[in-house]
Each structure stands twice: as structure tokens, then as C-alpha cells.
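Give me C-alpha cells for this 367-residue protein.
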Amino acid sequence: MPHIVIDKLKHINYPQKVGDVEFLFQAENLIGVKINNTKFLLSIKEKERGYLVKYDKITRPITSYLKKAYLAFAKLNNANILFENIKGIKEKLKSEYLLTINDNLDNIDIVEVGFGSGRHLIHLAKENPTKTLLGIEIHNPSIEQLLKRIRHEKITNIKVINHDARLILSKIPSNKLSAIYVHFPVPWDKKEHRRVINKDFIKEAIRTLKVDGILHLRTDSENYFNYSLAKFLEFDKIKLKVNKNIPYIVSSKYEDRWRKLNKNIYDIIMINIQNSPEIENNFDFSFKKKLTNLDFKPRVFENFVIHIEKVFKINNEKELIRLTMGNFNRPEHLYILNKDKPEYFKQPAKVKDNYLAHLQLKRLFNG
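Here you go.
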């Protein structure tokens, strides 16, 4: 972890500014920092010799901002740097193919969830050169492998995101996608709640797909196949096509492995038959009054969770709240600057589950 150790700390009356680095407040051992429009936190810890200064993991900024903040903080305290490991760290440039949950997803045409080696996603991109494909994957080595391949092969119509597919679909406009592929997902036989296919995912697939667009599940797990088929059949009206051991245009490395073991391969193809209303995505994450009567009890609701973890005092009027909130399977870790009119230190991703958690947070702690 990039950090510095300085020899002393002064008593500082915040806010202060050193060059273009703004030091906003001190909340116990946390220092609020702003450079341009980017806000993050530094953490201070007294050591046997000096003071360790490092970034807060929840709000980690880009490396160049971190270096600038460390040097400015040492200057603010008239301190000597006893140790540093930041000079040799190079900025990791963001790939033009890599998106975040806060990016605009309005131009996506085809989605693949859990693309693995990327063999199928690359085939789709070459077969659909005028369409934009989004690969969703949580396994970082798979993402790095795919990014190398698409750079090498000069494929320009693939975007990649590292996040929970159920949340990503909730950001895509209605009636937009021509296809969603879920090939050989992890079966999670002992943890069904972690499966990609569930009733909420199917609802989002129906909403985002065009009429005649498809959701294609391909799996080697009979248990997952039966579970998924039952989930599809919970809907009052649905059009399905089911295959067993029918060869596909692209064979993944998993499929190659399973066929050598003479395992069965199952397909469920849902063909969308309805138009859906547009989604509301103009979410307001503002507060009107200070949060009060705080407690640290985790609260789990149907689709989201709220857990206030710690409160850091700034002064008699202000405090910094650290909390976890949002989708139960992929919640966000956030800070709220709690004052007369509170605000998120960094805004949550604008997805429905975060907004529902935000509304519930206000109900719980705004009287």
C-alpha cells in the first residue's frame, strides 16, 4: 500500500489549502482531501517512530492525486518524511474498454455475464461489428486476459465492467438489448442466493430486452438447469426454448472440458415477448436534515442492506459516518458528512437498490 511516515503533526485548524490540495476537515484519525473535483480520505496512525499516513481504502484516489496529497500534508505539518514508497509507483492508466458502474450504459446492445476467457464475447463482437457489447465479470484475471486480447486484435466494440450483473442490468434502458448471454455460471449449489439467475435478474432481463431479444443460459449443471427452469416458469407468461446437448457456435474452455467428461450441456433460451416501461433513474441522494439517533445494528431488507459501522467526530456540529448500504449481494461502502444538511462524501452509484437504501436510511434516522 502506498504510504509515507512523517516525523510530526501540528495542530491544524481546517480547512486549509496547500497548492491545489484542499484539506477539508479532520474526523478523528481521518483527513478529508479534495483535489479538483475528487474527494478522498487520508488515515493517520501514530507509530513508535513518527506518523503513518495512508489512503482510506473506501475512497482511494488515482495515484497522482495520492502522491500530491501526501507531499502537501507533510508540508502542511512542516514535517520531514521519514519513509515513503510512492515515488516508484506509476499511474495505472484506465483502459478505454473498461467501464465503472457510474458510466453511461445507454449505448449497449448485447451483454454477456461471466465471460471467462472471452472466447464467446470476442466471437460476438466480430459477428456484430456495428453493435456495442458489454462483458460483465467479477474475476480480475479474466478481465485482464480479455483486455489484452481485444487490444491485440484491435476490437473496438467491446466494453468491460467488473461488477454484479444484477446491478448493471438495472442501469440499462428498457427495450434496448438484443441479447443477454449467461454461459456456464458458477452453480453455487450450497449458496443459491449467489446465483446469477433469479427472479429479479429475469425481470431485469425482460425489461432491458427488445421484443424477440433473448436471454440465453447455457450450463453443464443439471441442478442449475432445473433450478433456473423453475424460476422462469414462475412467470405468468413466458416464451422458452430448451435444448440438451446441442452444439453451439462457440465452445468455451469449460464446455471443452465437460464434453471430454461426457457431461450433459443444457440450454434455456428465453425469448422476450413484451415492451417494458422506461425506468426512473433520476435518483435524488440528498438529505434535508441531520441524521440522528444513530445505531450500529445491521438492517437487512428484501433487496438491500443498511449498516452504520462507525462515527468519527469532527466537532460539536459535524461528524463523519462510515456505512455499508445498497444491494445485499454487492453493497457499497460509503461515508456521510453528517451536519445540518448531510451529504455523501462521495455519491453512491445511481442504481435503484442504493436509492431504496438511501430512502430507508432517512426514514430510520431522520425521525
